[in-house]
Amino acid sequence: MRIAMIILYLVLAPLLGGLLDGLDRRISARMQRRVGPPVLQPFYDVQKLFAKQRIVVTNSQTFLMITYLVLMVFTGCMFYSGADMLMCFFVLSTAGIFLYFAAVVTDSPYSYIGGQRELFQEMCCEPAVLLTGVGFYLLEDTFETAKIVQADRSAIVALPGFFAAFLFILTIKMRKSPFDESTSHHPHQELVKGVTTELGASNLALFQITEWYENILMLSVIALFIINKSPWSIPAAILVVLAAYFLEILIDNTSARMKSGKMLELSWAVTIAAAGVNLLILILVR
Amino acid sequence: MWWSIPFLIIFPMCIGALLYCIHVQKIRKGIAYIATPAIMAATIDLVVTYFRNGGSPVDLYVDVPVASHFITAGEIVLMIYVTIKCILAKKYWISVLSIVPTVMIVNMEAHLGELGGAHIRLDHLSLLMCLIVAFVGGLITIYAMGYMDGYHQHHTEVPERRHFFFMVVYVFIGAMFGFVLSSDLVWIDFFWETTSVCSFMLIGYTKTDEAVTNSFRALWMNLLGGTALAFGIVYFETSTGLSTLQGLVTASQQGGRAGAVAVMLMAFAALTKAAQLPFSTWLIGAMVAPTPSSALLHSATMVKAGIYILFRLAPAMAGTATGYFIAGIGGFTFFMTSIIAIGQVDAKKVLAYSTISNLGLMVACAGIGRPETIWAGVFLMMFHAISKSLMFQDVGATENCLHSRNLEDMHGLLYRLPKLAVFMFIGIAGMYLAPFGMLISKWSALRASVDSKNVMVILFIVFGSATTSFYWSKWLGKILSRTMHNDQVKDITKNNEMFSLTVHAVAMVALCALFPLVSATYVHPLLNETFGVYKDVLSSNILNMLVVLILVVFLVPFMAYASSKRLHTNMKLSYMNGINLGNDNTFTDSFGEPKKLHMANDYFTEKIGRHALMVPCQLAVTAVIVVMFCIVLGGVA
Amino acid sequence: MGKVKRSPWLLHYDASSCNGCDIEVLACMTPVYDVERFGVVNTADPMQADILLVTGGVNSQSAEVVKQLYDQMARPKVVVAVGICACTGGVFKDCYNINGGVDTVIPVDVYVPGCAARPESIIDGVVKAVQIFQERSDAHDKYVKEHGESERDLSDPDAAAREGNPADFFDAITKTSEGSRDKEAEKK
Q1: What phi and psi values does residue C7 have, to the nearest 5 degrees?
Q2: Comparing C-alpha atoms, which of A251, A86, A94 is closest to residue A167?
Q3: Is residue B573 less than 8 Å (CB to CB) from chain A?
Q4: Best exposed site among A286, B377, B433, C11 by fewest CB in 10 Å?
Q5: Are C43 and C126 in contact (CB under 8 A)?
Q6: ipTM, 2 decimals?
Q7: Do A45 and C39 count as a contact with CB atoms less than 8 A apart?
Q8: Alpha-carbon distance A3 to nearest alpha carbon in chain B (angstroms)
Q9: Who's near B59: CB < 8 A, 6+ residues apart?
Q10: Rounded to the nearest 5 degrees, what angle is found at the Cα of C30, between the Cα atoms of C27 and C32?
C-alpha cells in the first residue's frame, strides 16, 4: 500500500503539478481577459528546456539543483508513505536550502539577492508549517500521515486556525504575488528572475519540475485537513484543494508585491493569531 | 578501583600549577601533550570501570572529613582572591557576592558538621559530562597550544602571559570534573565558584579596558548565581539535614517547601551559568578573550555546567511552577537570541548568540522535565558541545589566516581556505540540517512540549527554529559563494590546530551516524537513572526513517555530483544586464568605468541588532524571574 | 527531440530605440494581441530565452551589451531585429554615434521593418523566428545524437580563461589551497 502510494506520487505529482500550472496560466490569462496558452504549455516548456544546450554559470549549479529536486521528491515520498509529518517538514526545509545554495553559488547579483529572499521566505513560512504538524499531533496523537487519514472526523473541524495559517503561507510557498519576493512567474520585476536568474535550459527545467512536486506536496497538506476515514472525504478534499488553488490564483492576480519586512510581520502575525490561538484553545479544551 | 576520580580532579590542577611556573613554550607543549592524553585515558578508564561494575550509579566517599576541610579552605581562598581583585578594581560591591555565600557556607559547616551521605556520585549523566570535558576540553587545550603562538604574533599589544592562561585552562578543567562528579552540595558549590573565577580570569586575559569590564560583568553575574546557589544549599541543609543533590531531588519530588525553594534557587543559579536572559551579556562579553577560552567557556564546559545542574533537577522541576518558568525563560531565550544572531556580522558573535540560543532550548527541555525532553536535551548537549567547539576553533583559525572574523570576509571561503571551510560546513550543518541530531532533538523537544501542553514553549521552538535556520543558512551561503577574487590566502593553521579540528569533525559525523545506537545504549539508561522509568523515545518507525534520511541526505549530493560531472556544460557569464566585464565580478558603471561587484548579506542591523532587542528582553525576563521568586518563595506553588 | 516551437521565450533588448518599437513589443503581450497564446513568454533573462528581440540601432555603448546577451543565451537561439533602426540603423544610419543595424554585431535571422513596427508584423516576425528556432533545434538534436554532447560555444572568449578557476565546489574541497596556488603561479 505504502509503496503503491509512493509510486503514485512519483508518477502523478509532476503530471498533476504541471497540469495545475497550465490551468493556473490559463485562468490567470482569462482573469486578464486574454486567451492564454494551452493547458499543456508547462510541459512544452520543460520539454524545450531539456532540448536546449546545457548552460551554467558555475558547474556546481547542476548538482545542487539535482539535489534540490531529489530531496523534494524524497520529502513527498515520505509524506505519501505515511511517515512522520514533522520530520517531513524538516527535510523540506533542508531541500529548500539547496535551492538557496544553487542561487548564491553563482555569486551573481540577481540570484544572490533572490537567494537571500528565498531564505527570508522560508523563515516566514516555517512556523506555520511546523505548527501544522503540531496541530495534527495534538488532535490525532501522531505525526504519521498514515494514521491521520484514518481519523474519525476531518481535522479542519478542530483546526480551522491552523488551516487558515497554512493557507496564508501557501501563497509564499507557491511564490505567488504579493509574496513573490524571491522569484516571480511574471516577467519584468526588479530582480529579473530572482533565484532562477542564472538557471538556464535543463537546470531551469529541474526547477520547474521541483516546483510541481512541491506544489502537490503543499496541496496534499491542505487535503490532509479534510480527509478522514470516510471515502467521501476524498472528493471533498479534492474540491477544497482546487478551491484553495483558485484562491491563490485570484490573490496572485489582484495584489501587488509586498515588502519583505511586511511579509514577515503579516505571516507571523497570521500564524500567531490563527494557529497560535487555535493551539491555545485546543490545549485548554483537551 | 576508583583512582581515576581523584586523579581527574587533582591532576589537571597540578598540571595547571606546573604550567604556571614554566615559561618555555616548548616544555609547556610537551607537558600538555602528555597531560591531556593522560586525562583522556583516565576518563576512559573511569568509563570502563563504571561499566565493568554493572553500569549502575555508584556513591562514593561517604566519610572524607579531610577532603571537606580542603574544600572549605578552597572556598575561603577563592573568596579572598575575588575580594582583593574587586578592591583593586574599585568594584567593592561585587566582593559582597563572594563574601556572603562563603561566610554562609562556612558557618553552616561549622554548625552542622558532616551530615553524611556520598560526596561523589558516578552515573551516566556525570560520565557523559566527564567525556565531554575530557575530550572536547582536552582537544581545546591542544588547539590552544598552537593557537596562542599565532595569537601573540598578531596581537603584540597583549602582554605575554601564556603561563597564566594555560594554568587557568587546566585548573578550569579540573574544576569541571569536580563539579560534575560531586554529589555533596557544598562540594558542588565550591567547584561552581571555581569555574566562575576561572572564567573571570580567562576573559580578563588581555587586560584591555574592554576585557576588564567584561570580566567583571561575567564575575558578578556568575557570583550572583553562586549566591543563589549558596542560599539554596544552606536553606535546604539546615531545614532537612540532607546534604546531597540526589537527596534534594527526592525531597522536592515528595513535596515540601524546603525542596521547592532550593530547587528554584539552584535553577536560578543555573540560568546565570547557562547565560540565559537576562544574564546573556556576560557570555557575549567573553568574546574578547582569545578563541580557545571562548571555545572552552561556550562549548565544552562552563555553560554546560548550568545545563547539567538543570538536567539533574529536571525530575524535581517537572510540573512545578519553577519548571514552568524555567521552560518559558529558556524558550524565550532560544527565540530572541536567535533573532539577535541574525543581526550579527562578527562570526564569533553569531556563535555566541547561537550558543545562548541553543542553551535556551536545552533549558526549556530541562524545565519541562519529561524523559523525552531530557533525551532531546542530552543529545542537544552532545551535538552542541562538539559542533560549537569545532566552530570556535575553526573561526579562530580562519581569523588567524584572514585577519578578520567578519562574516562578509568569508565570502567564497571554500575556494580560499578549503579545509577550514569544510570543517565550518560540517559544524554548521550539524547545528541545523536534516540528518544531524540537532534536528531530531528539536523534533523530540517539540513533541514533548506538545505532550506537556506548554503552549509558550511550542511557539518559541517553532518560531525559533525558523530564525535559527535563517542565520545558519546565510552563513553557509556566504562560504559557498563562488569567488573570482584572486587573493589566495595562505592557510597558516598549525598541525595541532588541524588535528583538533579533524577529530571534532569526524566525531560530529560519527555521532550523526551512530545516533540511534548512542540513544539505545547510553541515553536510555541515563533516563532510566534520572526518572526511574524507561520510555522508548524513538519508535522503530522513526529510527528506520532516520537511517534512510541519513543515507539520502549524504548520498544524494555526491551521486548528483558524480552524475553531473560527466555532463558537458557551457560556461556562461553571470547575468549583469549585459555589462558584465567578463570575469563575473566587475561591471561597467554609468560612467563607463569598470566597477567591482561585491555581494553582501543583509543583517537588518538597525531593526534587530543587539541594542534594539537586548535591553527590552532583559527587562522582560527579569520581571518574569521576580514573579517566579515571589510565587515560589511565597509558597503559592 | 520534440517540438520546441510551442515554447518560444523572448528576451527583449532596447539597444538605442526611441521606445516606439518597445511599446509595440509590449503591446503584443496585452489582451489585444496576447502572444502567450503561442506559448510566448517575455522572460527578461538571457539564460532562459530562445529568441532575442532587439529594437533600435546599435551604438558603441550597446554593442557590447547586445553581444553579451547573445552569448549568454543557450543554443539554439534566434535573433529578430524589430523596427527599421534595428534592421539598418534607420534614419540614424549615417549618424556619427550609430554603428548601424543589429547585424553589425550579431547575426540577425529575421528583420521586422516599420517605424514603429506594428504589433502584427512583430508577431509575424516572431512566428518566422519560431520556425527557424524549430529548424535549429532539430539540427541541434541531430548534432547531440551524433556527438553525444551539445555544440561548444566558440563565442564565449572567457570560458577557457575561467576553466582553471576553483569555481567548483568539490574541486575546491579536493584541491588543497596549496595546489590551487601552484596553479595560479604556473599560469603567471
Answers
A1: -140, 65
A2: A251
A3: yes
A4: A286
A5: no
A6: 0.94
A7: yes
A8: 14
A9: B118, B120, B121, B183
A10: 95
Q: Which fold has domain C4-147?
A: Rossmann fold (3.40.50)
- Sign of the CA dihedral running B40, B43, B49, B52: negative
> Which residue range forms the structural domain that includes residue A93?
2-285
CB within 8 Å of chain A, chain B residues 70-99: none
Specify which residues C51 forms β-bridges with. C10, C78
CA distance B627 to A28: 56
Query: How near does any CA of chain A get to the CA of B472, in Å?
Result: 10
pLDDT digits (tens, 9 = 90+) for B402-445: 888 888 888 888 888 888 888 998 889 888 876 676 778 888 88
CB contact under 8 A, B489 and C177: yes
The C-alpha cell at B62 is: 561517604
In one-letter notation, the amino acid at residue B193 is E
Task: Calculate ∠ Cα B321-B326-B327, nearest 5°.
Answer: 100
B346 secondary structure, DSSP code: B
How far apart are the CA of A205 and the nearest CA of chain B, in angstroms?
15
To 10 degrees, what angle do helices B209-240 and B245-253 make? 60
Which residues of chain A lie closer than 8 angstroms to C36, CB-CB?
25, 29, 34-37
Amino acid identity at B75: E
Nearest to C72 by CA among C188, C180, C157: C157
Residue A35 · residue C37 · CB < 8 Å: yes
More confident of the two residues C54 and B152: C54
Euclidean distance between CA atoms B415 and C177, whole angstroms: 8
Coil/strand/helix, residue C54: strand
How close, in Å, is residue C37 to chain B by CA atoms?
28
Mean pLDDT of B54-65: 79
Q: 536534516: which residue's cell?
A: B434
Q: Which three cell numbers stand for residue B240?
A: 532537612
Which residue stretches of B404-539 are H helix?
A: 413-416, 418-432, 437-451, 455-480, 495-513, 515-518, 524-531
Buried b or exposed e, range B463-485, using 16+ CB within 10 angstroms: bbbbbbbbbbbbbbbbbbbbbbe
How many residues are listed for chain A in this entry? 286
- Tell which phi-psi region holds residue A108, choosing left (phi > 0), alpha (psi between -120 and 50) or beta: beta
Domain boundaries, given as residue ranges, for chain C: 4-147, 158-188
Pairs across A and C, CB distance < 8 A: 106
Strand partners of residue C139: none
For C143, the grid coordinates are 548534432
Which chains would you list as touching A if contact means 3+ CB atom pairs under 8 Å? B, C
Contacting residues for B283 by C-beta, under 8 A, at least 6 apart? B218, B275, B297, B298, B303, B352, B355, B356
Count of domains in chain A?
1
Nearest by Cα to B268 from B370, B367, B373, B128: B367
CA A128, CA A148: separation in Å to the nearest integer?
Answer: 18
pTM for this predicted structure: 0.91
The x, y and z cell numbers of residue A6, run together, are: 509512493
Return the closest-CA partner of residue C79 out of C3, C12, C34, C23.
C12
pLDDT tens, residue by residue, A10-43:
999 999 999 999 999 999 999 999 998 999 999 9
CA–CA distance, B180 with B192 (Å, rounded to integer) = 10
- Enumerate the residues of chain A whose CB falls inside 8 A of the CB of residue B575: 108, 110-111, 192, 197-198
Report the distance separating Cα B85 and Cα B106, nearest Å.
21
By C-alpha distance, the chain C residue nearest A63 is C169
| Residue C149: count of CB within 10 angstroms of its CB | 15
In tens, the pLDDT along B253-289 reads 887 788 888 899 999 999 998 888 888 888 888 888 8
Q: pLDDT tens digits, residue range A196-240?
A: 999 988 899 999 999 999 999 999 999 999 999 899 999 999 999
Q: Which residues contact B164 (CB under 8 A, 6 or more apart)?
A: B20, B201, B205
- Which of A33, A39, A53 to mutate to test binding with chain C, by most C CBs within 10 Å of its CB? A53
Q: Which residue has the cell 539564460?
A: C47
